[in-house]
């Protein structure tokens, strides 16, 4: 478990899905629930639905469209927002994420959420999990027109909030996003050991990973 030099960190940038919230909700929705409902609404088999959806998922992975509910509603001709409500009971906080948020807020750190989630997804989750009070800002990459994987996202973030990358901590569960932040110069980077509670630990490759938020605030 990494020990952070908190005295060298002013700004804490945090992802939402898979970092603060259990990624099981999103994985279940996109990989299981949506294909099933797509099959029902279009009158095709589940196997055919998966065959139709897979190329679209592959083509849009890592792009802003991947995270855009408006895009998928148009592309698939199904009411994606309404379908996401059908599984909203699965939205859950990762263990001790709120303890971590409260601690860094008390310590006077600048705490900002940066998520690729569409504003409608963000609103849905904030209605069920009280995260907003912990943050100075809640920023969706859709506000800027670039996903976090894109270098232009970080330029837009800098122009918006004026942070020092060398004195910032960023935690995210997506490795291409962490690499994008690293290329921009964000010094303190952490992946997430187990973003989906049903899938076990993941390989975070070159990045140290947080497994227990209580240990992360040691020395704060």
Automatic annotation (TrEMBL):
The keyword rRNA-binding does not apply. GO terms for biological process: DNA repair. The keyword Acyltransferase does not apply. GO terms for molecular function: 5'-nucleotidase activity; metal ion binding; phosphoglycolate phosphatase activity. Pfam families: Hydrolase. Keywords: Hydrolase, Metal-binding. GO terms for cellular component: cytosol. This is GMP/IMP nucleotidase. Its EC number is 3.1.3.5.
